[in-house]
Design a protein that fits this description.
alpha/beta, 5 helices
Length: 111
Amino acid sequence: MLGMETALIRDGKTIVIPADNTLCLEARYYSKHPEFYVFLLSPKPGPLGPARVNMARFMPVRFWSMDDLREHAPNAVLIDPSEVALQVLREEGISTRTLDGYEPRVVYLAR
């Protein structure tokens, strides 16, 4: 994740990682640019999402809802999104483009 970070920031992207993904805390913690990270609150949250929201009381973290993500779609890149989140975006008319050869999965959004 950190190896991709510079290229994503250079592209003018906000890095959006699902709050339920264990990568979100690690990537933001070790990043030299944590201000570019946002945690996505999933339409069907798992157990880690609400825990991340509770942790935000102790550290500055930005959260986006799916509505926020739709609003900022052209300037956002999703890291390892769930199929549910991608389906919701597609239903709203937001196209997705997965970059090949990256792990975790990197998905660019466009209106």
